[in-house]
Amino acid sequence: MPTSFDPRAGLMALMILCCAFASAAAAAGDPPLSLGQAQDLAVARDTGHGALEDEAMAMRDRAVAAGELPDPEARIGAINVPVDSLALDREDMTMIEVGIMQRFTTRRSRELSRQQLEHHALHYEADAEVRRREVRLAVERSWRELDYLDGAVTLLNESREWTRVLIDGAAAAYESGAGIQADLLDARISALAVDEMLIERRRDRETAEAELQRWTGVSAASREAAPEPPRGLATLAALEARLESHPMLRGLEHEAGAAQFEADLARERYKPAFGVDVGYGFRQGRDVTGSGRPDMLSAMLTFNVPLFTRDRQDRDLSAARSMLHGAQARYDDAKRMLESRLAAVHSSAAALAQSLELYETRVMPLVKSGVDSALAAYRAGDGTLADVIAAQKRQLEAEERRLRLRADLGVALAEIESLTGAGT
Length: 424
Known about the structure:
By secondary structure, the chain is α+β, with helices and mostly antiparallel strands.
């Protein structure tokens, strides 16, 4: 005899299945993977995130170096050597000289260079945080997709068992002469439709599992289900206030800061830079009186003369100003983009939460009642098997739709969290 499809039985079967997986994993010494653990694992092994952190560290090292004076320059050589004999002791001015030169860039220039590179380092760190959020969101999207597909596969397996009961009942009725062949054909067609859907969901699950394994590097065979998404949602105005701290905007702020320091450095290049050059010359031989020639000491002050600034300093300053304006424009554009995306996701999350509440409180009881009514009418001879199959199909679609809404709501809330930094 046909039996009604009870969604609570499907939920119970799913819970039993999860518990069985968890027990098997615990017995093997490998507890099931949680969503948070998977996200941390994905961030730890993400090469893009690691590369940005390395670049930030490199910029910090360069900032320390930029704040120091240039290395001194040493020199050694022979001066005023006669070309006819190459003797070092014949001429008074012939000497072996060693010297050292130190350039002194201004303290302000060094400080500006250091701060500029510090802003570059902070920019890379902000980009690394953007990447971290993107990775965590991608993992949660795959995780919740797997939750949906696991639930869908469980529902379809139960529906397949239910359609087999219908086929057996229709076949028995047809063989006894109490049923018609059309009912048996409808039941078999319904079973084939369920089998086809099951093949598609299993294929989709393999794809989602491969995507998750790409991020985490481990199999998702043993994992915990994602937590139930909360139904409460903060106001859009409250969430928009948190966008100011988004790492993308922070990174663009630091980019603008680096451009500002570059402009300040360009102004410093209009000023001369000084250096000191000290040399000591060793002389050989004797002078006309027979005395040894004294050594020679030289000291010079050097400085550059920025006279022709049109194609050098002026160009540097103009380029720095253009970079600053470009960074400010990118900041404004990124802020508008984030605000637009947050508004769209907030609206979507609110609609998904309402739809999920509608399905859980009104749709599911109605479709279950429809299955019970159609089955009761069929048993009493007042309904057809086609009505039962149609009612069962509506219940299956409603159950799968509820799972889809739950997964989509979880992803929407995760994206809101990624945009606003809530919970991070």
